Amino acid sequence: MGYKADVSPEAATFDQKALKSNWSHRHFAKAAGMGTFGINNMLITKIGCCGRYSTIVTNLDIEPDVPLKEEYCLYKKNGSCGVCVKNCPAGALTLNGYDRQKCYAVARKNAEIYTQFGSSYTNESGEQPNSVGSEVCGKCVVNTPCAFNRII
């Protein structure tokens, strides 16, 4: 159709010191009006927060969406939840904040165990994996109202 599209190599990088990626699919999804961030830093959409995102950069002319005004996190909305804080095995989540170091320590332990899935990210040059396994957890969203759909 004459348009160009590509995936940024930055999407697969992760700075292990700052514990941040150079490219956040979740933040692009929030900017596109797909959801809001919970106190667990997961993007909560109208159908839940247990999902993965990808981004494609294109020069296709489309009407942009806008970030949502409605809050989907029940704790942020009215203080009625906070289950994710109780579920966090690392103690990284509190009602007042998030400790990246504590969360990442659990994710690194998981990467040592779950090597069959490959590395979660590549290094800054995009060539070699920066870990032997999958650096994920997600236990904070197990059996929570926001995991499956919005209950508002």
TrEMBL record:
One of its GO terms (biological process) is tRNA queuosine(34) biosynthetic process. It comes from the Bacteria. InterPro entries: 4Fe4S_Fe-S-bd, QueG. GO terms for molecular function: 4 iron, 4 sulfur cluster binding; epoxyqueuosine reductase activity. The keyword Methyltransferase does not apply. Keywords: 4Fe-4S, Iron, Iron-sulfur, Metal-binding. The keyword NAD does not apply. Residues 64-98 form the 4Fe-4S ferredoxin-type domain. This is Iron-sulfur cluster-binding protein.
